[in-house]
Amino acid sequence: MEDVYRQLARKLDELPNGFPPTESGVELKLLQWMYSPEDAEMALTMSHPLMPETVEAVAARLGKPTAETQEILDGMIARGQIYSYRQSGQQVYTIVPYIVGLHEMQFHRKDKNEADRKVYTGLFEEYYPLLLKSLGGHAPALTRVVPVSTEIKSEHQVYRYEDVHRIVEEAKSFMLMDCICRKERALEGDPCKHPQDICLLISDEETSFDNYPLGKIISREEAHKVNARAEQEGLVHCTLNAEDVPFQIICNCCSCCCLILRGVKDFGVPHMSAGNNFVATIDPGTCTACGVCAEERCQMEAIVEEKGEYRVIPEKCIGCGVCTSTCPTESISLIRKSETEQDAPSPTLLDWAVQRFSSRGIEL
Questions:
Q1: Other CB atoms within 10 Å distance of the CB of residue 292
Q2: Which of 63, 118, 123, 324 is paired with 219 by a 20 to 30 Å CA distance?
């Protein structure tokens, strides 16, 4: 039985995000929690995320009737073991990385109860520090911070990946999802003050999520309202670190729960998030030293008080801009970094994956 899980672990570790082996074998225990041996065998046959297949293609390759294959795939999707989305008007299926992917989908399973999930979260917390070495130890970064739109509107040139409003405006399908990180921390006995129903999955395809909803299908207007609420909460917009992707996440993150920001802040892992091309700055001439930015808004402890004045530590600032909107004297602003400090996302998911493979020393 263990052989199939070791094979599946190797397959997941061969994806750009990584799924490294451990001495304790905790990664195998996670897979055993997620997959029956039969499901693991089927997952081993699924295509690479960069080469998704239609159900007809999967059925033909496996030599099974299409209807039977569809039933198998539907069951695995319901159990959070593979993923499906619309691409070029067709429903396609693929295996997905452990993070971002399999881990997040486990909290949507209806065949697991709270006691089951507590077992899972315990295993995940054991594995998380070890996983970070692969997940965030190699360039390019897994995710990217998008600044609050209101703070960069005066820029002459604002790229799509720098404008969360534009990202939503150009999408066609929207799904509101619970924050899996906050659910996981709550099960570990460390609940968050921020709301759970505040993360988004969006797509450039019409009706992209209708067949397999992992959350609530919403409108573009509702998606804008979700992001506005996140900014009021002081949460950080995070997306995948590539421009052209089949679907995009907009996670609204806090550093106390988010596995990405926790990796940056608590573990110092360099490539969990790319930050962005902006950094906050405080005007000492107008700042009244009220402390709201440091004590209530900054997720990364990048604002410090020294001799009665507040300043930004550029090395810690991720350019999210959530400190700016509640400053009573409008003393905080985002400024664009110098050209040598700027970093753009990969043009496509394929480009991102190739760079990750190279960084991890994996031959294509």
A1: 17
A2: 324
